[in-house]
Design a protein that fits this description.
Blueprint: E1 17-20, H1 24-31, E2 35-43, E3 46-53, E4 56-61, H2 67-79, E5 84-93, E6 103-112, E7 126-127, H3 130-142, E8 147-155, H4 158-162, H5 170-182, E9 187-189, H6 192-202, E10 205-215, H7 216-220, H8 232-253
Parallel strand pairs: 1-4, 1-5, 5-10, 6-8, 8-9
Antiparallel strand pairs: 2-3, 3-4, 5-9, 6-7, 6-10
Length: 254
């Protein structure tokens, strides 16, 4: 096949799994946790490496920030043969017991973004694949990492969250944020909803593990608010989860 327009990849990679950071700079760092990592291309926000886990080819491709570029990346990767998508991202905590340095394994997302609205009606839920997410949970337990499972808030506007008062629609943003807090939403980020919806429509599997950078609700209340920008724990959990999933798939095939 010809290389696809945005990601500039064809199907020669023969990978069924893709690890998806948002930041292009993190792609190389994640690839170093794989066997035999090699750089295979970069175009726009899509920087791609290829490696192996348990002898299976694994892609690492950045998606940029937000839903539109994430959707394009997933759509085109799927055309090249990828059927398992695992986002390794960052988030800000909302629920008070979600601390900087913890991991959040998203089971579903509040759809405050716009890209999935061009796939399905708003009533359609954005949920992760159950078995793939279970592999993340098992990996977190195996590595003895502090993690939380549950719903995350997915938005399009970073500054709409952090400076809602200066937005003309701030009254609505602030009211909804309070609703998410009261509903025990774990954290906020910008890609999970699109990841889950697009994968669902394509018939692919998706899961999401997030490093908590900070928690603005804790800071607002004068509680301790440790900051953690290093995503290594999330990467280790993701790699171990893919390993577990590959082994499970091989066992089923036998």
């Amino acid at each position: 096949m010809e290389k696809l327009y945005h990601i500039q990849l064809d199907d020669s990679h023969q990978a069924k799994y893709a690890l998806l950071p948002g930041d292009p700079a993190r792609a190389e760092k994640i690839a170093q946790f794989l066997d035999n990592p090699k750089f295979i291309g970069s175009n726009r926000e899509y920087t791609t490496w290829l490696g192996q886990i348990e002898g299976e080819n694994i892609l690492v491709m950045s998606t940029g920030m937000g839903g539109p570029s994430t959707a394009i990346g997933i759509e085109e990767l799927f055309q090249t043969g990828v059927t398992n998508f695992l986002r390794i991202g960052t988030c800000g905590g909302i629920k008070l017991d979600v601390m900087g340095g913890d991991l959040v394994i998203a089971t579903g997302a509040i759809r405050m973004d716009g890209t999935p609205d061009e796939y399905v009606p708003k009533e359609f839920p954005a949920v992760a694949d159950f078995d793939f997410t279970g592999s993340l949970v098992q990996a977190a337990k195996k590595l003895k990492v502090k993690y939380h499972t549950g719903i995350v808030h997915c938005k399009d506007s970073f500054y709409g969250q952090h400076s809602p008062g200066r937005m003309p629609i701030g009254y609505e943003l602030e009211a909804k944020w309070e609703a998410w807090f009261k509903a025990n939403c774990l954290a906020s980020e910008m890609e999970s909803s699109t990841l889950f919806i697009v994968s669902q429509i394509l018939g692919a599997r998706a899961a999401c593990v997030l490093n908590v950078i900070w928690n603005q609700e804790r800071a607002k209340r004068g509680l301790s608010d440790p900051h953690q920008h290093d995503t290594e724990l999330a990467v280790r959990v993701a790699v171990e989860a893919v390993r577990e999933d590959i082994l499970q798939q091989k066992a089923k095939a036998d």
